[in-house]
Amino acid sequence: MGLKGTVKVPGDKSMTHRAFLMGGIAEGTTVITNALMGADCLASLAAVEAIGARVERTEQDIQITGTDQLKAATIDCGNSGTTIRLLSGILAGGQETYTLTGDASLQKRPMDRVTVPLATLGATIEGNYAPLTIHGQHLVGTSYTLPVASAQVKSAVLLAGLFATGETTVIEPVLSRDHTERMLPKFGVEVTIQEQEHGRQIRLQGPARLQATTIDIPGDPSSAAFWWTAATLGHDSSITTEHVLMNPTRIGFLQVLRQMGASVEISNRQETAGEETADVTLATTSLQAVTIEGEQIPSLIDEIPLLALLATQADGRTIIRDAAELRVKETDRIETVVTTLRQIGATIEATADGMIIDGPTPLTGATVDSAGDHRLAMMLTIASTLQPEIQVLGNEVVEVSYPTFYDDLKTLQQ
């Protein structure tokens, strides 16, 4: 049975986190529409409330009145790596002591990737894993070169730079998600970006107080990717996702779909909050295997479980390399993807930094577990639209990033 129709996916997760956190420290009241109200982003909203921001929710929007007195607090970041890492940058320049903790999964994720660079601005942070104790300090601007492409680390340093005296510069050899540097000017802070032969320099002058603004969050391409996959693999399917974020650092997955031979149609291009948006339509096509590596990886890191599923139905051998970061996500995403896809008939093996998949192979019925990983749960559910005998356990975890996922699926099945 084909899937057909139009979906408006939830607001972009990365942009929602940043809008909540920046709104929480901005002067005045920031108004945010189409925010993602999943568990991860709600952790960021609760965090700014804990440090003194005032939050009002209506059916239409979220209004955040920011604070410049970052109150001492113990903050539970839940399962959200973005919350704990970006918040570390903000609180490093506060004047109190803060404790940041999270659930069992978050407590296993390494935090030295942000604590080490923040220390170069003068931050005092105890702990390499959550719980972290941050002793707010006077910070001094610095220049920091990212050892690996990481939007979270870059953002933590730039946000700390708002509280630092002098210029803070982040040098990134490989472009990573750039929502922070696109959104800061919306909040009235000048950001200078200089392209270099090897990457680029991002600079801001501190101390700088953010000014409240209005932000309409576009649809999350990482959520839209599930429907793009479902349409491509389905039987006589066609799905349009409306008002989706088209940030170049986030649509690597669409580019790979094109490389594999998918039918991608983009229409209704617009701009919001310094970001481009569009409607994206995909329809069923046959696919060719590809090799995905190097600079392609950062822009599609969250979509690799879906790429693995696509590869099971593509002609030839698909190779994914340079994705070692997946081993420290909510789960070891390389192992869990390989193990669960094997259970449903895939010819797939794990490598140290990726996977090798041979296709096409018919999917077989099995009961599989999400392992508490929202992206895995949704990927396996898309697999079940091809093979109805696939049963997914633990699918309530989709609340983290896409609370209406199963409602949207029902609409497309009618």
Brief overview:
Helices cover 30% and strands 28% of the residues. It has helices at residues 13-25, 39-50, 81-92, 112-119, 151-161, 179-183, 221-233, 252-259, 304-312, 333-343, 374-386, 405-413, and strands spanning 4-7, 29-33, 54-57, 62-65, 73-76, 97-101, 124-126, 132-135, 139-140, 143-145, 164-172, 191-196, 199-206, 214-216, 238-245, 263-272, 275-283, 291-292, 316-320, 347-351, 354-359, 366-369, 390-393.
Can you walk through the features of this model?
The chain has 414 residues and is an alpha/beta fold. Helix content is 30%, strand content 28%. It is built from 12 helices and 23 strands. Strands 9, 10, 11, 12 and 13 form a 5-stranded mixed beta sheet that branches. Strands 1-15-17-16 form a 4-stranded mixed beta sheet. The longest helix is centred in the first third of the chain and has 13 residues, at 13-25. The chain is globular.
Question: Which quaternary structure do these chains form?
Answer: single chain
Portion of residues in beta strands equals: 25-35%
Strand tally: 23
Mean pLDDT: 94
Q: Note the gap between the termini.
A: 10 Å
The main β sheet shows up as:
5 strands, mixed
Computed Rg? 21 Å
Helix content: 25-40%
What's the overall geometry? globular
Low-pLDDT residue intervals, each spanning 5 or more residues: none
Q: Structural class of the secondary structure composition?
A: alpha/beta
